[in-house]
Design a protein that fits this description.
Elements (H helix, E strand, L loop, with lengths): L4 H17 L3 E3 L11 E3 L1 H20 L4 E4 L8 H6 L1 H4 L1 E6 L6 E3 L6 E8 L1 E4 L5 E2 L3 E6 L4 H14 L5 E4 L2 E8 L14 E4 L3 E3 L9 E3 L5 H6 L1 H8 L5 E10 L14 E11 L2 H8 L21 H18 L7 E5 L11 E9 L2 E10 L3 H10 L5 E3 L4 E3 L2 E8 H12 E7 L5 E7 L10 E5 L5 H14 L5 E3 L5 H11 L3 E5 L14 E6 L5 E5 H12 L1
Parallel strand pairs: 3-15, 25-26, 25-27
Antiparallel strand pairs: 1-2, 4-5, 4-12, 6-9, 6-11, 7-8, 7-10, 13-14, 15-16, 16-22, 17-18, 18-19, 19-22, 20-21, 23-24, 27-28, 28-29
Helix pairs in contact: 2-11
This protein binds adenosine-5'-triphosphate.
Length: 544
């Protein structure tokens, strides 16, 4: 069930505070005041991120025969970005607030309705100096006209009038305008294009000849290395190349915590397929699917771009489910004709229902053979593939599932965050904060606790258990404080299992329980008695 906006904002605030408090995420260079759009992952965040990347990598490459990996440089030949279109078109239309200079993406301004208060200019009361620059403010419902005038006075004061008197006020009713700053009502500039690539120079001289860019996506390296990978990996189309790596975008408006950052990591797959005409030639009529129909079972020789596209959407949904993001938390957005890039045949966005709204986690695009063709033409090097079965050469088409590690980490934290009222043995109720991570992604898999730290036999056994598990999973050994407190600390870190070594373990209560420990489950808080020798067998299948 969806919650009211204020509850969602409160939830997000709690998540941000927990992430800082428990060492998931810190503002980058915080001692200098931080830097907008850049974030650091602390001890728990680093483990979480690593798990996400490892799980993606395993499912995309190691568990498949038809996908291989790549780890390319961040800075590439600048022609790459000319060919890909990023130099000329990787730009968003931007608008600036005329009052605060704050910059927004023009296509992200929420339409607003109200009354526009327009002025032809203003005069300084004392000096009589006049400014004849027109200016407008949008007054939304429920606000007094004085608030519009106040904004206009600030605008003219910024232009050098000490005590501005507004001139030529007129009003006009509007609906759904995007020309005004939603935060203060001020008029915005006309949209201007802004290139999102970070520029630098390679080598000692800062000249136009040695301009380089920090890559805004990892995908282009895959296209550029297509031939090298093909020739060395002995793959045949259809096959894919996967890559995880940093990407940089000088986003105008980094926001929603780490959702939109300027430095982030992407996990991208380019899955190369035969053009439909070639499929038809070698396998007969190409499989088609009506709306709502999905391909079933293993990939088939008669699959064209549509089947492969749908296949990857399903694969990706299955993967999200396997790490704890079920279908209920996700939405699919099929891009409309107007939204699609000119070369794309279809794109599906997988959205996660963040507390600040359902937003893109991953895009799965059927990109035709646009990218390889661009590099083929720009570099003069052939990107063609000789298909032995079809007996012809072609530039393969591609399906691209592309997702962001940081966004996914945020989605996993949002999904996991929970607060519940619990009553302790003494009847006292308190709020338990718990991150219900799927054991596969949890930063720490198991906490190991000797019941008392001043009993050497307990400590020694606990260290043995730690060392038994450590080669297989992340273990956190904690002997400080009351056992209940230690459990709570691990609940907040999202640790799914806790193992306590007590007097039963060391045989003080008879041989029946010797060599057993209590295994506590984070979500139910239930405890069971298990043999140390059974621990690996119980835990491993759940955390891998
Ligand atoms: P948006 O419309 O949100 O800017 P996009 O459609 O431009 O995203 P793509 O270029 O398709 O994004 O990038 C693929 C994935 O990379 C996105 O689905 C997202 O997970 C991630 N990503 C893109 N931009 C950012 C960013 N600024 N911060 C964090 N992750 C990002």
């Amino acid at each position: 069930m969806s919650q009211p906006a204020s509850k969602q904002t409160e939830r997000m605030e709690k998540i941000v505070s927990l992430c800082k408090r428990r060492g998931f995420i810190f503002p980058s260079s915080e001692i200098y005041g931080g830097i907008n759009g850049f974030w650091d992952f602390g001890p728990l965040g680093a483990e979480l991120k690593r798990n996400v990347k490892d799980l993606w990598w395993k499912s995309m490459t190691r568990f498949r025969d038809d996908v291989v990996g790549l780890d390319a440089s961040i800075i590439m030949h600048p022609m790459t970005w000319k060919a890909s279109g990023h130099v000329d078109t990787f730009a968003d239309p931007m608008v600036d607030c005329l009052l605060t200079k704050k910059r927004f993406r023009a296509d992200q301004i929420e339409p607003q309705s109200g009354i526009i208060y327009s002025y032809t200019g203003a005069r300084d009361e004392a000096s009589g100096k006049e400014i004849d620059e027109p200016y407008s403010v949008l007054l939304t419902a429920g606000k007094p006209p004085e608030s519009a005038r106040k904004v206009a006075i600030q605008f003219y004061a910024q232009r050098g009038l000490t005590n501005p008197v507004l001139l030529g006020e007129t009003t006009e009713k509007v609906e759904n305008t995007t020309r005004f700053n939603p935060e203060n009502g001020s008029l915005l500039t006309e949209p201007r294009m802004f290139n999102l690539m970070f520029k630098s120079h390679a080598g000692p001289v800062e000249s136009d000849e040695n301009v380089v860019y920090l890559r805004p996506e990892t995908a282009q390296a895959i296209f550029v290395q297509f031939k090298n990978v093909l020739e060395t990996s002995r793959q045949k189309v259809p096959f894919g190349i996967a890559q995880i790596g940093k990407a940089f975008r000088n986003e105008i408006n980094p926001r929603n915590y780490i959702f939109r950052s300027r430095e982030f990591e992407q996990m991208e797959l380019e899955f190369f397929i035969k053009p439909d005409e070639v499929v038809e030639k070698t396998a007969g009529p190409v499989a088609t699917f009506r709306e709502g129909e999905w391909p079933q079972g293993e990939p088939q020789p008669n699959w064209g771009w549509q089947a492969w596209h749908l296949y990857w959407v399903q694969e990706r949904l299955r993967w999200y489910e396997s790490i704890g993001l079920g279908r209920d938390s996700l939405e699919l957005h099929w891009q409309s004709r107007e939204e699609l890039a000119h070369y794309a045949k279809a794109t599906v966005d997988i959205l996660y229902k963040f507390p600040f709204g359902a937003q893109e986690l991953e895009g799965i695009a059927a990109r035709g053979n646009y990218d390889l063709t661009q590099h083929h033409n720009t570099s003069g090097k052939s990107m063609e593939y000789f298909d032995q079965e079809a007996g012809e050469k072609y530039i393969p088409h591609v399906i691209e599932p592309s997702t962001g590690v940081d966004r996914l980490v945020l989605a996993l934290i949002c999904e996991a965050f929970d607060e519940e009222e619990v009553t302790d043995e003494k009847g006292k109720t308190e709020v338990r904060t718990v991150l219900r991570f799927h054991p596969r992604v949890a930063p720490i898999k198991v906490g190991v606790f000797p019941l008392l730290k001043n009993k050497p036999a307990l400590v020694q056994k606990a260290l043995e258990v730690r060392d038994l598990l450590r080669p297989h999973m992340t273990v956190f050994y904690d002997d400080a404080g009351a056992i209940g407190r230690r459990y709570r600390r691990q609940d907040e870190a999202g640790t799914p299992f806790g193992i306590t070594i007590d007097f039963d373990t060391i045989g003080e209560n008879g041989p029946a329980t010797e060599g057993t420990v209590t295994l506590r489950h984070r979500d139910s808080m239930k405890q069971e008695r298990v043999k140390i020798s059974d621990l690996l067998g119980i835990l491993l299948p759940q955390v891998q």
